[in-house]
Amino acid sequence: MNVSILDKVWPWRLFITKSDAMRPMIFAGDLLVVRRAARDGVGYEAGDVIVYDSSHEKPSASVRRICTVLHPSDGTTHYVVRRDDDGLAVDSIVESSRVIGEVEARLVNVGRVVGGSVGRSKRSLSRLEPAPNTRQTALPGGWSNVD
Length: 147
Hints:
The protein has 147 residues and is mostly beta strands. It has one domain (12-146): Umud Fragment, subunit A, CATH 2.10.109.10. The protein has 1 helix and 9 strands; from the N terminus they run H-E-E-E-E-E-E-E-E-E. The protein has one helix at 3-9, and strands at residues 12-16, 31-36, 49-53, 61-70, 78-82, 92-95, 99-107, 113-115, 145-146. Strands 1, 2, 3, 4, 5, 6, 7, 8 and 9 form a 9-stranded antiparallel beta sheet that branches. The longest helix is centred in the first third of the chain and has 7 residues, at 3-9. The N and C termini lie far apart (43 Å).
């Protein structure tokens, strides 16, 4: 089977994490099973763990938890995301078009399978305990947030 055809019908992508930024749920060396995002990347909510393209120059994926959903006056959707391991790190704002997908499961150290119905969601790891929203994120003018 042609790889490009498989890529179109297979709804998941696999990523190996390189850091402990999402501790205590995801560690460096874990293999993440990520369900591809809808074409526009909208439909996620606070608490979901997403993978997104974090570079404007060359493809580079980052894993973060959504803290807030933003709806600017231009009708687009953006997500305020953060790492789980560092309460002091700066939040990032991610355009929905940069979302690659939502983490659904992980292989611990590319070993035993953990995921699926873990946590509050029957479909994803992303509904595990969300990081507390203890920081205030400055929003650009004309933007509103939805928690």
